[in-house]
Structure formats: C-alpha cells, structure tokens
Amino acid sequence: MAIIENTFVYINIVMLIISFPGNILIIAVNILDFCKNRRLPVSDQLIFGCSVFSLLHGLVEIVQFAIEEYHLITAHILMYFNIGTICFSALLNIHFCLKIVNINHWFYIGLQRRFSMLIYWPLMTFLLGYTLINFLSLLYIKQKVLLNTTSAVVESQACSWSLFICMSMSVFDTLLCLVSTLTIVIHLFQHMKRIQENTMGSRSPNMEVYIRTVITVTTLLAANILLFSSMFFRCILVALNEMFGLHLFSILISTCHIFSSYFIIKGTKKLDTVLVKVLNQCLLLLKPNQ
C-alpha cells in the first residue's frame, strides 16, 4: 500500500511540475502588464485569478501527503481552490459571451455595460463566504473530536451541509459556463457561416480569431465539467475515507488544471505570443554555438 501511495505522490509532483510553468507564465505576464499599464482588462484579471487558484491547488496536493493526518482539512482547502477555478472560468466565459454576443434586451445590455463593475461583488462574496463555511466546518470537527465523538461520525456531520453548499455553488457556476459557452459557439458558427457566404467561400482574417475563441471556451467548459464531476466524487471518497480512489480523482483534477492553463495560453494572443518568444529564447540557449 505504501508503494501505491508513493507512486501517487510522485505522479502528483510530476503534475505540479507540468502545470507550474504555464501558471507562472500567465501570472508573470499579467503582473508585468499591470505594472506597465497600471490596469488589467477584465478578461486578464479573470485569467490571472484562475491561474492563481490552479497553482495553489497543485501546491496543496503535494502538501497533503506530508500532513496526511489532516486530510479532511486539506480536502476542504482543495475543494475551495477547485470551486474558485470553476467560478473564475464561468465568469470568464460569461465575459466572452457579453463581448461577442449582442442581444437586444434591457437586462442583457445593462449587464454588458456594468459587468466589469459588478464582477467583483460575486467574487468577494464567494471568497469570504466559502472561507467562513470552511472555517466553521473545521471548527465543528475539532470541537467534536475534543469531546471524544467518533471521527467518522464527525466527518460525516461536518461534510454533509458544507458539501451541499459547495456542490450547489459548483452546479450553478457550471450551468452558467454551459449556457454562455453554447451561446458563444452558436453565435460564432452563425457569424462564420454568413462571412463565408459573403466572401464566396474564401477565408476571412477574422476566422482564425473566431476558431480560437470557440476552442478556448469549449475547452474551459469541458474542463469545468470534468473538474466538477471529479470534485464531487472526490468529496464522497473523502467522506468514505477511500484513499485509492481519492488519489485517482486527484490526478484527474490536476490534469484538468493543466489542460485549462494550456488552452487559456493558446486562446489568448498576448500569452501565446509571449510563450512563443520564451520557447524561441530557450531554443537559442540550448542550441550550440556555431
């Protein structure tokens, strides 16, 4: 059993090493951009937040093996980072939808104009609210353990209501992501079809941008659905104390974070350009002098 656990530890370390450069690239580029321009567009802010949560998730995944006796606490922290990633991804897709799709309705138009100002309220509510939920849940567990209550019963009682709230938030964010993604994809395909008809089948310069956007939002949606499903089963396995399945779903969640970071970079022209420059510089350094 120790061999299997050590294997999963090494796999998680490899996952972190793979995800580390992509997340660091996104974070560094956005920090430098902010220092240069003293502002960040809403999309870059959301991408930055998503990358921070993804990076912290990978670090906690490694730490949890060093403090295995506190696996319930680390499970709550990991759930927090996963829901944060889903929340930022959903808001990013909604932002793309509001920028790309025009709907002649007073509520939608008002949301388009005020989204950059309204976005901070749900984020602050999520960050503070879920932190409070985790704190109260873990405080409840500690209190019951000190009163010599059975550990399994304590974990079950503490996780039941907390898990319900967390899963409800995740379902809501995933549904928002699904609706906004489908709206974007349908609108862009209709728009590309009209462009091809008007240009007699020739390829428009904007076509590549549309295809890049479709790939980005659909990938984020797929990653969110996989992340939510894995997180749901992972929470059940934490309650059942089933460590083998827990490690498997941890690896799947880490994989979702890696692919999300990759497609965010490829879907953002600024990040993709920086990545190409960095890779070219690395190739020049590795290339022997002639």
TrEMBL record:
Q: Does the keyword Transmembrane apply?
A: yes
* Membrane topology term: Multi-pass membrane protein
One term of GO molecular function: bitter taste receptor activity
What Pfam family is a match, any one? TAS2R
**What UniProt keywords apply to this chain's record, in alphabetical order?**
G-protein coupled receptor, Membrane, Receptor, Sensory transduction, Taste, Transducer, Transmembrane, Transmembrane helix
The question of whether ATP-binding is a record keyword is answered with: no
Q: Give the matching InterPro entries.
A: TAS2R
Q: Which domain of life is it from?
A: Eukaryota
Stated name of the protein: Taste receptor type 2
What is the scientific name of the source organism? Eleutherodactylus coqui (Puerto Rican coqui)
User: In the record, what lineage is assigned to the organism producing the protein?
Assistant: Eukaryota, Metazoa, Chordata, Craniata, Vertebrata
